[in-house]
Structures are given as structure tokens and as C-alpha cells.
């Protein structure tokens, strides 16, 4: 009803978000994920595409391993990314959480370029970037000039 209104705010019921998790989506496909553990970096990755370590309450300091939740998030992210394909373009991150009933939900979608990496599997992330270079090219229709920052001369990128 208020779409496009600059002062509109989304209000919903209060929910308890448990086990926040970030999934990187490139080329419309989830490629890797990690719990939103602030002190973790890609150097802390366990060698798994979907790192199983997370905190039930973000920043509480109690890091636990939950491979079952990581697998649930992987499957849910695939389903959600396919459901919004065509609505969302370019690389992005999908932040997820579990509700008290153990059901996953999307908290938000954000640009990939300014998201925290946490304990992501950098090999999986960099492979997806390599395999989807068009997602990382400037859009000539937005002022990118051919030959500048990798913008191709073709009219169709």
C-alpha cells in the first residue's frame, strides 16, 4: 500500500531470531555460507561450504557447531533464491534465522559487495565469482564506459 513512499516503515510482530547465518548468492545460486559470528573470518572456515558454527543469540560468545542447521539453511537458501530469481539481480547475501519452531526465515537481502565474510569458504566464493564475471562488471547503462573497469564493448553483457 505504501510502496515507493520514502517515509514508509515496515512493521511486523516481534520475533526471536536464533542462529543468524549468511549465505552468499552468485548467479542466482547459493554458493557458501557461515554463521554470523563477528570474530570469525574466512581463515576460521572449517573446510565446509556451509560452515556449521553459529551462535544461538548473535554476539553472545557461545559458538556451537550445528551441521544440521547449516544443511537446513543450505536447502532453504536454494529454494528461496530460486523463488526470487528474476526479482533480485547481481550478487547478494541472504541472511537467515531460525524461529522458535525451528523454521528458517529470510531476515534480509544485502549487496554482496559490502557484506561481512565471517567464516566463509573462500574457495567456493572465489570459484563462483570466477564463473560469473558478468555479475561483477559495471553496467554501461549506468555510466560505465567500454574499456573502463572491465566493461565490454558489446551491447549485451
What are the defining features of this structure?
single chain, about 160 residues, alpha+beta, 4-stranded antiparallel sheet, two-stranded antiparallel ribbon, 2 helices, globular
What does this structure look like?
By secondary structure, this protein is of the alpha+beta class. The chain contains two helices and six strands. It has helices spanning 67-83, 122-131; strands at 18-26, 29-35, 53-55, 63-65, 92-98, 104-111. Strand 3 and strand 4 (63-65) form a beta hairpin.
| Oligomeric assembly | single chain
Mean pLDDT: 87
User: Strand-and-helix sequence, N→C?
Assistant: EEEEHEEH
Spatial arrangement of strands, main beta sheet? 2-1-5-6
Helix content: 10-25%
Produce the secondary structure layout.
Layout: E1 18-26, E2 29-35, E3 53-55, E4 63-65, H1 67-83, E5 92-98, E6 104-111, H2 122-131
Antiparallel strand pairs: 1-2, 1-5, 3-4, 5-6
Give the structure's gist in a few sentences:
This protein is α+β, with helices and mostly antiparallel strands. It has helices at 67-83, 122-131, and strands at residues 18-26, 29-35, 53-55, 63-65, 92-98, 104-111.
Amino acid at each position: 500500500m505504501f510502496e515507493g513512499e520514502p517515509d514508509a516503515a515496515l512493521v511486523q510482530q516481534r520475533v526471536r531470531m536464533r542462529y543468524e547465518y549468511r549465505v552468499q548468492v552468485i548467479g542466482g545460486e547459493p554458493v557458501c555460507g557461515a554463521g554470523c559470528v563477528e570474530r570469525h573470518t574466512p581463515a576460521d572456515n572449517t573446510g565446509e561450504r556451509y560452515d556449521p558454527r553459529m551462535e544461538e543469540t548473535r554476539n553472545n560468545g557461545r559458538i556451537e557447531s550445528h551441521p544440521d542447521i547449516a544443511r537446513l539453511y543450505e536447502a532453504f537458501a536454494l529454494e528461496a533464491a530460486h523463488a526470487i530469481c528474476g526479482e533480485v539481480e547481481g550478487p547478494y547475501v541472504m541472511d537467515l534465522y531460525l524461529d522458535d519452531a525451528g523454521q528458517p526465515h529470510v531476515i534480509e537481502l544485502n549487496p554482496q559487495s559490502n557484506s561481512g565474510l565471517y567464516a566463509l569458504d573462500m574457495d567456493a566464493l572465489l570459484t563462483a565469482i570466477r564463473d560469473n564475471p558478468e555479475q561483477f562488471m559495471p553496467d554501461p547503462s549506468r555510466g560505465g564506459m567500454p574499456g573502463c573497469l572491465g566493461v565490454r564493448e558489446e551491447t549485451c553483457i
